Structure formats: C-alpha cells, structure tokens
User: What shape does this take?
Amino acid sequence: MGNISIKQYTCPICGASKDKYIGIRNNHYYCRRCISFRGEESVEQVTYPKSAPIYIDYELSEDQKKLSSQILENYKNGINTLVHAVCGSGKTEIVLEVIKYAIKCGEKVGFAIPRRDVVIEICERFTSIFKRNSVISVYGGHNENTVNGDLIVLTTHQLYRYYHYFDLLIMDEIDAFPFKNNEVLDAFFHRAIKGHYVLMSATPSIELLELFKEKGFDVVELFSRFHKHPLPVPKLVVANNIILFYKLISLTNRYIKEKKQVMVFSPTIESCEETYLKMKYLCHGGDYVHSKREGRPTIIDNFRKGKITYIVTTAVLERGVTVKNVQVIIYHAENSIYDHHALIQISGRVGRKKDAPEGEVIFLATKSNDEITKSISEIKRANASLQNML
Assistant: This one.
C-alpha cells in the first residue's frame, strides 16, 4: 500500500474521500458509498459512422425545431446544454437531431433516466424512431448487453459501468428520485462522460441554472407544449380527512361517468394500498401500483389501454406515463414527500395529447403549504410566458 493513507485516498468510481466512506480490506482500498455497484465495466468498443434516419409521423413545432437546432450547434461547438422545458413540451423530440448527428459521426450515445419503468418505455419509443439502428436498454436485471448499441438507454445507476465512454450523454429528469441530490449517481454521470452532455428538466433548481450560466454553458427554454395549450392549473381543496375522502370518491366517480381515466396519487406505499382498499368498494374498475407491487408493468399497460378506469399510485407514475384525457388527483398534497417540483411533474400528466389538451388537476389537502403555493405559481408563470410568445 506504500505510504498512502486513507486520508489521501479518493474513490475513482464516485469521488468519495471522507474517512467514513473509505476502508481497507486485504491491503486494498474500498469505498463503502459505492461498493454495491461493483461489477465489470464496459470494454472499449470501436464504432463506425452510420446513417440514423428519424421516423416520426408528426411535425415538430417551430419552437421545437429552433431548440433542436440550437442543441445540435452547441454539441458541435463543444458546449453543454441544459434544457428547461415544461411537462409535455416534447423534450425527447428536440434531442433527436443531436442523437442522429452523433450516431452519424460514429460516436457513442447514451440516454440516461433515473427510473427503470421510463427507460423501458423510452427505449421502445427510440426503437420505433431509429428503426435502422440498434437501440438497447440497460437497467438492473437487464444488463447482459451493455455496449452493442448505436444508442444506449439506461438508468442512472447503470452509468457506473461506463468510464469516460459517452461522446454524447443525454440525461433526462435530473430532478427525479433517485438521482436528485444523490452524490454517488451524480459522480457516475460525470465519470461516464467522454465528450459533452445535455441535461433536461421541467423543474431545474435555481442553483443548477446559475451554475450553467457561470460555466458558460447554454440554457435553452421551452415553456410551450407542442400543441400550444397551457398547462392545467391545479385546483386546491382544503378540508378535514372525512371531507377529503368524500371529495376523492365524488371526483373519481364523476370522471368515470364522463369516461375519463383518473390517476390518484398517494404519498406512501402504505397510504396507496389503504386508499385503494377504501376506494374499490365505492369506485369500480380501478387498481393500484407502487414500487413493490407485483405485476406493475401489466397493470400500467392495462391502464394505458383503458382497461382500468382509475389507478391509485405513489410517485412511481410521476413521470413517463402518457394517457389520453387522464385526470389527476393528488390525495394529501400537503405531505412532505411532495415538493413543488413533484407537484408540477404530477400535474404535467394531464393534457399531454393534442386531441385532448385539457383536463383537471386537483390537490386535496388538509392544509395549504409553501410547496403547494409555489407549484401553482410556477405553472401560472409558465402559462404567462406562453401567452407572451403567442
């Protein structure tokens, strides 16, 4: 080990250097913070320029085209980009050209997302868009092939496999759990970058926006949804628990009668199950999901197909699920698990389809708080920005 002490050692994987993280075993250093991510890293693989035609059956809006060109120019000039775009604005569409360009140049391209369910959905979508290219997904339990793809879609946890690997790394939902405020995953992200990156978020922090500007990187903003309709402004109902539950049942049954599907968000796994058990006798045709629910993919797929009238869910469906004409109820929106970022994201589930651009978002709470107030104000501000652009 020579004369190097623990105090001088820095983990090459996640950058940890504090004594509480570093240990010595069999005369070798190890890091307690990222030891669970041990595994074989991807081997360097030679890639060659390939054509990457884009197959989409719709035209991008003028705003999307403008930002797409700007992101591409930034990448060509070695400038990292932060995309600040409202929910439903079409963030994925505006990075298609830069992905196409990087593949055409024979470069390694990654698209990282915090959550496994969204990785699966986005990979399917990219497979249909880049039909002539190899699009692979990498996530826990699905990592047999980690490099043989023109485009690699992966969870942020899986970035530990890639050391200075990606010429272009796009990171979506940077404000989502479990990536948000996670030093280990952030270290994995920066360690995986060989070239440049694009970050995307509907609710970036003020600190991140300022950091990008300080470093001379570019921040591009898109406050309009592709169909030009405003974001739904949440309606707040404050009452005691008995009245809130009555309101939950009343709203859900009204939506079902109107043939509109409903997403009911509940803050914890326990409250999710409890809420559904109470609702199922009064509202028919529903189901529930959370991170530990067996058969979750099938339940979500049935909801997308309209086989389920309402679904009670934790934040596991906060992102990545698009259902036509869906209505959203956040039950106990005052819970501390819901910061204004989460409330905005959940609200963004509504009105995402061009042929159903409107809908209702209801916050049911025993009291209001700063996060609720801030989320409503942010949505109104985004809508005001949209009106100024029109």
Remarks:
- The mean pLDDT is 86.
- DSSP finds ten helices and 15 strands in the chain.
